[in-house]
Amino acid sequence: MSPSLPPSSRSRLSGGSAIGREAPPTTVVWDPAMTAYDFGPTHPMAPARLELTARLAQDLGILYRPHLTVLAPDLATDEELARVHSRSYIESVHRVSEDPASPLPLLGLGTEDDPAFAGMHEAAARLAGASLLAADRILSGDAVHAVNFGGGMHHAARDKASGFSIYNDAALAITRLLDGGLERVVYIDVDAHHGDGTQGIFWNDPRVLTVSLHESGQTLFPGTGFANETGGPNAPGGAVNIAVPAGTADAGWLRAFHSVVPAVVREFGPQAIVSQHGADSHRDDPLSNLEVTVDGQREVMNSVAALAQRHCGGRWIATGGGGYNVHSVVPRSWTHLVAIASGRSLPVSTPVPEGWAEKVRQDFGVAAPETMGDGVDIWWRSWETGYDPSNPVDRSIMATRKEVFPLFGLDPWFD
């Protein structure tokens, strides 16, 4: 079992490190066909971010690690999709997919966020199938960790598309784990945007704890995810939301994560963790107002892996999500995710391979980052250092702790 991370320190994980004594069997679900999830050349969710991630992980040798298996997904069937989405909605996606000229904006299909395109159903069902395959590998024991960096479509609701998301693959993976015999699953979402779709799907399900760390809905889509959103009548405390203010950087973001997430995960006692690692919390992302770095994102990835090791026998499914700095942020962030899931993280000082950098220059006309990190100090303060009511991040943390900690039998001031 990996040691717990220090509550307040410069990262002891700035170099490469192993999650456990032995590298866990890991599945990465990837196929170039997943880039067919394409809303068009002017849409911010460019499929090139997936291709660049796969290429970077390959060029760094991560995809060749002996305990790592790369598998291509099948399309999720309509029956599988119906475990989370309404049949009428699935039929509507089929209809728009076959005839993009007849959008259904009331269902979120054919909107500015989710433009209709031919083959939409198949493209979205493939991403969903990837997370279902990840769940099947965990259930069968063929993998302890599984990664679908093409997934993380967390805004999709039961009967509506939203925020670039058609089918909610993370919710499908969670449901598959529950159907396969698990009794409790934690969902951890660190995308800059609130994981509203996944929260809504499991709002009243006591078997699932959804935790979202995001920029406040006062300044960012979808305008939800406040501290007082804590779950339905059958699942009090089943939703935990940490809404940090715009401008929050590594120190505040990491303090917020560690001041809430480990405690509620410990008390819930999950048998698996499903996480969403949208890279749009980065300071260079065009669609959010946070100031997090790749180094900070990597620290949270290591922390989620440690939580899975500590509480779930390692069982962990990691997905991608948002992230719209296509060439310099998303591929580095998600390559770190694959490396960490496969048991050995990359030092942030690792040079970016020249072949990959040349591809970025050729395809985007810009210089690639030189290393796998942003060259920052990600020092952060633990909750034990005290609550500062003048600090807006601390006020956000305390708002969440006051709402949910008593529901877990915890003291919001001291635990």
Write the layout of secondary structure elements.
Elements: E1 26-29, H1 48-59, E2 68-71, H2 78-81, H3 87-98, H4 120-140, E3 145-148, H5 169-179, E4 185-189, H6 196-201, E5 208-215, E6 239-244, H7 250-268, E7 272-276, H8 294-311, E8 316-319, H9 330-341, H10 354-364, H11 392-404
Q: State the name of the first-level CATH class.
A: Alpha Beta
Q: Low-confidence parts, pLDDT < 50 over ≥5 residues?
A: 1-17
Shape: globular
Number of strand segments: 8
Q: Could you name the CATH homologous superfamily?
A: Histone deacetylase domain
Strand order of the largest sheet: 2-1-3-8-7-4-5-6
Give the SSE order as H and E letters.
EHEHHHEHEHEEHEHEHHH
Determine the number of helices (DSSP H or I, runs of at least 4 residues): 11
Q: What distance lies between the first and last C-alpha atoms, to the nearest angstrom?
A: 23 Å
Structural class: alpha/beta
Helix content percent band:
25-40%
Q: Classify the fold: give the CATH topology.
A: Arginase, Chain A
| CA gyration radius, whole angstroms | 20 Å
CATH architecture: 3-Layer(aba) Sandwich
The average pLDDT value, as a whole number, equals 94
Major beta sheet, specifics? 8 strands, parallel
Strand residue content? 5-15%
Protein architecture, described:
The chain is of the alpha/beta class. The chain has helices spanning 48-59, 78-81, 87-98, 120-140, 169-179, 196-201, 250-268, 294-311, 330-341, 354-364, 392-404; strands at residues 26-29, 68-71, 145-148, 185-189, 208-215, 239-244, 272-276, 316-319. The protein has an 8-stranded parallel sheet with strand order 2-1-3-8-7-4-5-6, with helices on both faces. α7 runs parallel beside α8 (294-311) and α8 (294-311) runs parallel beside α9 (330-341). The longest helix is centred in the N-terminal third of the chain and has 21 residues, at 120-140. The radius of gyration is 20 Å and the shape is globular. Mean pLDDT is 94; it is low at 1-17. Pathway: Ketone degradation; acetoin degradation.
